[in-house]
Write a structure and sequence with these properties.
alpha+beta
Length: 156
């Protein structure tokens, strides 16, 4: 599977916008949209856990070519903690309950808007990866922290 790219991110952003889905890019895809110099194989979305939002999300994904099973639709509507979709134009991980972030609304108030992309704040991305404590996350944390320090230095 090729790396997730900006064109795909734009296609996803535009579809989610058309259906008024409340979501944030999170994980490495979110960090990349903030300028983190890396690649990822999928998009990571933190989605507000609300039935209508899940239904709108399912419609938006189908609109851009994802094939959703009835189980996928149910999982999105009820806000299952983690839904991985691989049957579409690119891979997407949908997270309704990311590690390290208590409430969607809290992350939403801290979000950063980049070219119309709602992105989790870098501190939330780092906090979530730190809380998940997976090997791949532990390996990327030093680079993400260095990137956060660089972002902060640019704002001075």
């Amino acid at each position: 599977m090729p790396a997730f790219d900006y064109r795909q991110a734009t296609e996803l952003r535009d579809a989610l916008s058309r259906y008024a889905v409340r979501y944030l890019f999170i994980g490495k895809s979110g960090a990349i949209l903030l300028g983190f110099p890396d690649t990822t194989q999928d998009a990571d979305l933190f989605v507000e856990k609300e039935r209508r939002n899940g239904q709108a999300l399912a419609s938006a994904l189908v609109d851009i070519g994802f094939v959703l099973t009835e189980e996928h639709r149910r999982d999105l509507e009820r806000g299952k903690d983690f839904v991985q979709l691989k049957d579409g134009p690119f891979d997407v991980d949908i997270v309704f309950a990311p590690d390290g972030i208590e409430r969607f609304e809290d992350a939403w108030t801290r979000r950063v808007e980049i070219d119309g992309f709602p992105v989790c704040h870098i501190d939330d991305i780092i906090g979530s990866k730190d809380a998940a404590n997976r090997v791949k996350d532990r390996e990327s944390l030093p680079r993400l922290r260095a990137f956060r320090d660089w972002l902060r230095s640019r704002r001075r």
